[in-house]
């Protein structure tokens, strides 16, 4: 993708057998049913290490940090099939296609110390160590492994702002901890602009570094303490041949034992021969060393590693508790792992004193709320954020307030597009933060200033310099001769405009509603009735030629997709799209063509994100995620059920390679959760969910209002893949959608499954999910 150079959105989790031969009730706390290894191989881009729900720390092993050209598979720093570990760093993205971070990398060493990672193919050539998966333990909030080259048992856990380490060294060998401030995920060398490192009088090690990575000029500080006194220490500046302010880096010679400044700093802390484990705790801050120390003082009290591990497990059990699912052990592992991955981001990005870094790179203060960042908006607005609205509405209040705070700190008056640690990357397209805010408000989330939110949404949608919004506002589309991906950008802007209109309507702001409701129809300006596809237009109004609906490439008419995939993206006006395509029969026939096409995957060899193909449908990337549900809107919901079975059977698998692509900060996982439950938010910012079919025999959603919404299905097996009938609280449900209020009220949704499709249920227009051109209810 051209905005972020490299990014992937690929499938997420799980699913071996959806048969439930050994149905059981989930009685154990759900953290015990999670397998963090899922997605740590292939293109999953998930890390196996320790974190707590939405925490600032993601403490995890890094197996490699290659240069940018070769780093795609190491977006999370870890690849399951790698033979060595180079260290443990404190910040990681969860399933992103692009990356950065890998901050504050440490490596416990027994015996002689080497200052460079070395070659994984040459044991002993550096400080990295071989390891065996047989020695790994991966659990929510806890990770352990034995570093076989050193005989060191490494254990990691986390709290909100602190990473906790426990290293058990072999007897008879001196213990060291190496700290390397040079590595950065996606580019081992060359990203550090400046760093500093010092050992304070009380033995606390602190430092900061500024990097020129995905978010240029990002500053990250830390404070580190040990439970054992150092016997000695060496601080290195490895900038051989580089001169700064008249100082030439000495390379491998320690310059000072107390403080260092430069671009390539390392520290080696010596502890002699230890008779008990070395405990290390590290706090980070986006602001300063002083704030990192304060974070450590408040969030890192004491030295009880096991208590911290227990607290992390308890935090995950609480986060996972809103849904109880029955089914086989395999099914529950798959389900709760997906739920776990949907609750890692966004991440806390605020110190204990309320300070956070804004997109203007200045320090701001959050008054009365926790500030969160790590926003992959193009991905998470679709299902991950709607899932959190349903399961953790209180948390959503802070999320929305964080978005508003970011907009107020933006030099451009923009809500976040793709932000982390408070800074903006401008990756991906659209302004989908407005959909998250509108969806939250429409579904009853309060506790934030709605008028201020509306101003932030309008300010974002009218900033003409962003993605050629100026032309979009003037002529109703984004001209491809002025802006790449003009076709898909027009479609995404139109949907976001519709979301703004819905919130404006709810607030009684009629002028804003009328303006953005009209803008929401702009998708029609890139619809070509002659070819039957969405297409990019030139400034003169003509469609760009030549046109090939199978073509896809970065900077093309569409964002990480081709015409076959993006022509279905009108979530706010599916009824209008059906009419444009010639009616129900023509619409579903073209959907069938999409899924049944014979496609050579090599056609997308230059677009890493387009994978998980079923025909032209690409489950490995977000533009396809709602497509299977569109049969509901054309009166053939049985085909939605058929396609969902096809996707779940073919696109998910267990184990490290169970994701055919990256999780995109929880979106792929959230798609799985909604689909397994039997419904999906095709149009966030509406109050409706399109009904699919369930893949679990029973699920109970425990809502924050004290009600429980239970979903049951029988008989649920491969021989009965279709919905025969549905009842809601014992009464037949003739419509193919749920309202958010149906869920909040509690009760039971029951699916009667059958072997053959029910081709009459859901055919009436009144039974279909709402769409803008048919908004009668």
TrEMBL record:
Signal peptide: 1-26
Glycosyl hydrolase family 92 N-terminal domain ranges (all copies): 34-285
Annotated ranges, domain Glycosyl hydrolase family: 291-754
Keyword Signal: yes
Superkingdom of origin: Bacteria
SUPFAM superfamilies (UniProt xref): Six-hairpin glycosidases (SSF48208)
Keyword line: Hydrolase, Signal
Classification via InterPro entries: 6-hairpin_glycosidase_sf, GH-type_carb-bd, GH92_a_mannosidase_put, GH92_N, Glyco_hydro_92, PNGase
MF terms in GO: carbohydrate binding; peptide-N4-(N-acetyl-beta-glucosaminyl)asparagine amidase activity
Protein name: Glycoside hydrolase family 92 protein
Protein species of origin: Dyella monticola
Organism ancestry: Bacteria, Pseudomonadati, Pseudomonadota, Gammaproteobacteria, Lysobacterales
């Amino acid at each position: 993708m051209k905005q972020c150079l490299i990014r992937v959105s690929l499938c997420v989790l799980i699913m071996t057998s959806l048969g439930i031969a050994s149905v059981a009730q989930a009685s154990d706390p759900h953290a015990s049913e999670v397998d963090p290894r899922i997605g740590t191989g292939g293109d999953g881009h998930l890390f196996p290490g320790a974190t707590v729900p939405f925490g600032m720390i993601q403490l995890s092993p890094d197996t490699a940090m290659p240069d940018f050209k070769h780093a795609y598979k190491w977006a999370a720093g870890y690849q399951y099939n790698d033979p060595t570990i180079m260290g443990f760093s404190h910040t990681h993205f969860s399933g992103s296609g692009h990356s950065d971070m890998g901050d504050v990398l440490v490596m416990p060493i027994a015996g002689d110390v080497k200052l460079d990672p070395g070659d994984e193919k040459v044991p002993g050539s550096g400080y990295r160590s071989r390891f065996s998966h047989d020695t790994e333990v991966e659990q929510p909030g806890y990770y352990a492994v034995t570093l076989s080259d050193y005989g060191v048992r490494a254990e990691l856990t986390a709290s909100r702002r602190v990473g906790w380490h426990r290293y058990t060294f072999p007897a008879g060998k001196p213990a060291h901890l190496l700290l390397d401030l040079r590595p950065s995920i996606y580019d081992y060398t060359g990203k550090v602009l400046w760093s500093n490192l010092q050992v304070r009088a009380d033995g606390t090690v602190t430092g900061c570094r500024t990097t020129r990575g995905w978010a240029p000029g990002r500053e990250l500080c830390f404070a580190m303490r040990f439970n054992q006194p150092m016997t000695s220490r060496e601080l290195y500046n490895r900038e051989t041949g580089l001169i700064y302010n008249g100082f030439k880096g000495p390379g491998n010679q320690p310059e000072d034992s107390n403080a260092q400044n430069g671009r390539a700093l390392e520290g080696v802390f010596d502890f002699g021969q230890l008779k008990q484990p070395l405990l290390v705790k590290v706090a980070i801050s986006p602001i300063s060393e002083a704030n990192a120390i304060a974070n450590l003082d408040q969030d890192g009290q004491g030295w009880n590693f096991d208590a911290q591990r227990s607290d992390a497990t308890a935090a995950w059990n609480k986060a996972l508790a809103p849904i109880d699912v029955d089914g086989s052990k395999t099914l529950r592992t798959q389900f709760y792992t997906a739920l776990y991955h949907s609750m890692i981001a966004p991440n806390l990005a605020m110190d204990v004193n309320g300070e956070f870094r804004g997109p203007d790179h200045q320090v701001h203060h959050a008054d009365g709320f926790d500030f969160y960042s790590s926003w992959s908006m193009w991905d998470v607005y679709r299902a991950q954020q709607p899932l959190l609205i349903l399961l953790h509405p209180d948390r959503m209040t802070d999320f929305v307030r964080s978005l508003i705070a970011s907009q107020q700190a933006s030099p451009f008056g923009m809500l976040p597009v793709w932000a982390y640690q408070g800074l903006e990357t401008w990756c991906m397209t659209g302004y989908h933060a407005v959909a998250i805010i509108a969806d939250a408000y429409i579904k009853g989330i309060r506790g934030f200033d709605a008028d201020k939110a509306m101003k932030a949404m309008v300010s974002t949608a009218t900033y003409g310099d962003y993605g050629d919004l100026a032309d979009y506002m003037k002529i109703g589309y984004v001209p491809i001769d002025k802006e790449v991906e003009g076709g898909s950008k027009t479609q995404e802007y139109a949907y976001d405009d519709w979301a703004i209109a819905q919130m404006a309507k709810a607030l009684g702001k009629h002028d804003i509603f009328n303006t953005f409701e009209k803008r929401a129809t702009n998708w029609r300006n890139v619809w070509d009735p002659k070819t039957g596809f969405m297409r990019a237009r030139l400034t003169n109004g003509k469609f760009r030629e030549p046109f090939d609906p199978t073509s896809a490439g970065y900077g093309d008419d569409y964002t990480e997709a081709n015409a076959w995939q993006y022509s279905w993206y009108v979530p706010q006006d599916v009824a209008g799209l059906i009419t444009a395509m010639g009616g129900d029969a023509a619409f579903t026939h073209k959907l069938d063509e999409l899924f049944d096409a014979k496609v050579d995957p090599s056609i997308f060899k230059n677009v890493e994100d387009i994978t998980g193909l079923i025909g032209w449908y690409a489950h490995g990337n977000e533009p396809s995620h709602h497509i299977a549900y569109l049969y509901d809107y054309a009166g053939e919901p049985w085909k939605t059920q058929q396609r969902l079975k096809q996707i779940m059977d073919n696109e998910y698998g267990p184990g490290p390679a169970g994701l055919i692509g990256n999780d995109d900060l929880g979106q792929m996982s959230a798609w799985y959760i909604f689909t397994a439950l039997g419904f999906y938010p095709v149009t966030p910012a509406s109050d409706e969910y399109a009904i699919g079919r369930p893949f679990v025999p029973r699920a109970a959603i425990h809502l924050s209002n004290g009600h429980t919404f239970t979903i049951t299905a029988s008989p649920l097996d491969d021989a009965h893949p279709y919905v025969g009938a549905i009842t809601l609280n014992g009464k037949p449900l003739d419509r193919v959608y749920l309202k958010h209020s149906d869920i909040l009220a509690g009760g039971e949704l029951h699916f009667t499954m059958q072997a053959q499709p029910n081709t009459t249920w859901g055919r009436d227009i009144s039974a279909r999910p709402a769409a803008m051109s048919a908004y009668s209810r």
